[in-house]
Amino acid sequence: MKPCVAFGNAIKMMVNLLQEQDMKQKIKDFINRVHDRLAIIGICLAGAFWIIESIMHVYVFHQLSFVESVFFPEAHEAWMRLIIVGMFICFGIYAQLLMNARKQAQAALGVANAELTQIFETSADGMRVIDRAFNMLRANNTFCRLTGIHKKDALGKKCYEIFRGPLCHTDGCPLTRILNGEDRVECDSEKIPESGPEIQCIVTATPFKGPEGDVIGIVEDFKDISERKLTEQELIQSRRRLRELASHLESAREMERTRIAREIHDELGQSLTALKMELHWCIKRLPQDNQELVEKAKTLPGLVDANVHLVQRISSELRPGLLDHLGLSAAMEWQTGQFQERTGIPCDIICEPSDIILDQARSTALFRILQETLTNIIRHADATRVEIVLREKDGGVELTVTDNGKGITEQEISDPKSFGLMGIKERLYSLGGSVTISGSKDKGTTVWVSVPADASEESTHAEDTGGR
Fold first, then answer.
1. Is the pLDDT confidence value at 88 over 80?
2. Which candidate, 426, 435, 428, 421, places its Cα nearest to that of 456?
């Protein structure tokens, strides 16, 4: 019996609730209908006032009949009635205009609120609104997915309880900076949700202002850049490995050049020397009555000498012995002389001091950079004069090569096919150096190179011996 009574009471409560909701809806609909007819109501009230005033004059003052009081009132009475009727009508029309404007404003406000809500909720970035006391007022779906928390559980909690980072409780906190007068705060930060791994984010904070324009909190935007950071790290590691490989290949290439130059100079040079000695022995034993054969044989030592000089030149171009035995300054002076002899372009070289001592890796790099620069001058500069300055400065070594040619352009400097310039930069990167290349049209080009004097593991691991 009791369950039936309880069920009946529940049904009655539901009916009463529905009736209350229906009554509220009816009242709301009635008020809306009234709001839509304020001008008509004003006119009706004006007419009702005119009729009531006419009836009052008939039954109170007994001066006129009802018809006369309605249609032919006295002048002062008509004037008073017209003023009041006009006030009713004007009030009704004005109230109707106000209600229409209010409805339009509410409709526009509803559209704007819907748009802002949609933008906020569907944003690809996590967003939340925080008051001055660090309480979360609002959060979008992306933020909830980012932090792994339900929206209802996040609202009302402190911001650092939901999504904390190294800036929390410090002067660098975005809310603190906004309250101190900054208009916008953007920074990279690691954020840690209540549960889950650390998330790399770009945090953007803007002031949240009230109706009076005062700051009542902030709006925070979180862009998850974890994948981008991972990609950047992989790219950095890949670039580092490629540069290490390039440095290793360059070192191996230099060692191979040294080995080949040494073998050419020693083995081939010795063979040619032995060949020349054998030729002299054979020439002395030729029959003197055959002058044609003797004369032809005497030309052979000259050919051998030419080949000896050719071997020496090839060996020097592969790896100048001066670089290993007399140092960088002597090798550069020799290279400058070779350049001037081959091209006929005057080339001045200044070394300060005259004997600069560097490890073999740096000596080799600067020498090869000079070779590449002089090659570019031959190919592209159309220069008539070159000046080279090598000096020690600020604990390092600077090399400056200047020509008076047509001048390199910015487009040529940044051209990805400028492998010579790219090689210069890569050589310097492994040594911790820097290069600046500038040109002026018809005034020449300047290549400025700076290398620290201290040897590092990167620059010396591929070289077996030190040098000058």
1. no
2. 428
